[in-house]
Design brief:
Elements (H helix, E strand, L loop, with lengths): L2 E2 L12 E3 L6 E2 L12 E3 L6 E2 L21 E2 L12 E4 L5 E2 L12 E4 L6 E2 L6 E4 L4 E5 L11 E2 L21 E2 L12 E4 L5 E2 L12 E4 L2 H4 L9 H5 L5 E4 L5 E2 L12 E4 L5 E2 L12 E4 L6 E2 L13 E5 L3 H6 L9 E4 L6 E3 L9 E6 L10 E6 L5 E4 L5 E4 L7 E7 L5 E7 L3
Parallel strand pairs: 1-3, 2-4, 3-5, 5-6, 6-8, 7-9, 12-13, 13-14, 14-16, 15-17, 17-18, 18-20, 19-21, 20-22, 21-23, 22-24, 24-25
Antiparallel strand pairs: 10-11, 11-12, 26-31, 27-28, 29-30, 31-32
Length: 424
């Protein structure tokens, strides 16, 4: 026998350990699939291929030595092996199938041998990268994406439910289909301006993903449809989008049917908003536009926003222009704020009663706050709570007076924010 056949030991829940004899050269598809009690396996140095789903859902497996004879690892080969903590990909492996280590939530160390001609794990990134294309094909909970990576492959981080944070470098131009699907612990993501393409369902079923920042004009300016838009990429659970100043246009149907969307901030560079961009955004309470000249709105661009119940926040000195601009003029509550001074002054707190407003603060000097967002809730009087990203909640506790926000930078990079009335 030179091959362990497909499904040979599939579902053998009582199997604890196994030694693959030296005469075996290949392990078939699903060979040990679902062997939940399997804790030890020794693969002989003559095995050249490990089949698709060969060790899938072997949750008891804590370690495995892939010999230098193996040239191919099939798709989903070790998927769901949550007990695995480390793996070394030898130099002999030249083919790794999709999702080979998918949902290996305990895998904290993965190293590709330096002599491998096809794959690498550069910069101790704890990921598998296809060297020629600079595509990250498999990432894990503690992966740091190197700045040399240009593409995140299909399903690269899929099913990592313990993934809570990931930074995508500006070198990345493509995020593949289902790249972060089922990453239920992910709460926020920032799309850098280098990204030109995001695959379908890239963030599908990321139930905790509520805050999305997009700095890519290519992504925002796409002509979307009612069935393919930002909601089908990031999910309908998103509550807040922040669009960067590099973005110049918002495409048709961009936020279509964002029924849970509560706040959107449009950067100062936005000059146009496509047709039906906000159609169906019935819960949108706060829209901020940092453009001093109101962006041109195509047909039905702001349809779906309850303009009688939502707050439009705009830069100081632009009120008259927004009051005259098509579709913008329909907002009954407009609030001017200064977003580029050393003190942020809230000129009329009464306008925020029982509402939320999203403010951007940009500072000129290095010690000040740069591009921070402040999410404000101001019923009656003022208390402040802040997290380490500089986001804070304010609720009004005293009088309807003008107040200022003082911001100072801490040694650890966080900001301490103090709210004061203008007299003291």
């Amino acid at each position: 026998m030179t091959r362990i056949g497909d499904h040979a030991f599939s579902g053998c829940s009582g199997l604890i350990s196994i030694i693959i004899p030296e005469r075996v050269t290949s392990i078939g598809d699903y060979a040990f699939n679902g062997c939940s009690s399997l804790t030890s396996i020794e693969i002989s140095k003559n095995v050249k291929s490990i089949g698709s789903c060969a060790f899938q859902v072997c949750g008891g497996l804590t370690s495995i030595n892939i010999p230098n004879s193996v040239t191919s690892i099939g798709s989903f080969a070790f998927s769901g092996c949550k007990g695995l903590t480390s793996i070394i990909i030898p130099s002999s492996v030249t083919s790794i199938g999709g999702c080979a280590f998918n949902a290996c939530s305990g895998l904290t160390s993965i190293v590709v041998d330096d002599g491998n001609p096809v794959y690498d794990s550069r910069d101790n990134c704890n990921a598998i990268i296809e060297s020629l294309s600079n595509t990250l094909i498999m990432g894990f909970v503690n992966t740091v994406i190197p700045s040399s990576v240009t593409s995140i492959g299909n399903s690269a981080f899929a099913n990592l439910r313990d993934l809570t944070n990931i930074e995508i470098p500006n070198s990345v131009t493509r995020i593949g289909e289902r790249a972060f699907e089922h990453c239920s612990g992910l709460t926020s993501i920032e799309i850098p301006n280098g990204v030109t393409n995001i695959g379908f369902w890239a963030f599908h079923v990321c139930g905790s993903l509520t805050n999305v920042a997009i700095n890519s004009n290519d992504i925002m300016s796409k002509t979307y449809t009612s069935s393919s838009n930002l909601n089908t990429i990031f999910g309908n659970q998103v509550k807040e989008f922040v669009i960067g100043s590099e973005v110049t246009s918002v495409g048709n149907y961009a936020f279509y049917n964002g029924s849970n969307l509560n706040g959107v901030t449009l950067g100062s560079g936005v000059t146009s908003i496509g047709a039906n961009a906000f159609d169906g955004c019935t819960a949108l309470a706060d829209l901020t536009s940092w453009a001093t000249i109101p962006p041109v709105c195509e047909g039905g661009a702001l349809t779906g926003i309850s303009k009688a119940n939502s707050t439009l926040t705009i830069p100081n000195g632009s009120l008259a222009k927004y009051q005259e601009a098509d579709q913008w003029k329909d907002f009954t509550r407009m609030v001017e704020v200064n977003n580029s001074v050393n003190m942020l002054i809230l000129p009329d707190l009464s306008a925020y009663v029982a509402k939320q407003a999203l403010l951007n603060v940009g500072m000129a000097n290095d010690d000040a706050i740069t591009g921070m967002q402040f999410k404000l809730t101001v019923p009656t009087g003022v208390t402040v709570a802040e997290d380490n990203k500089g986001k804070l909640m304010l609720s009004k506790t005293e009088r309807d007076e003008d107040h200022t926000l003082d911001g100072s930078k801490n040694d650890d990079g966080t900001y301490t924010i103090a709210l004061k009335n203008r007299e003291g």
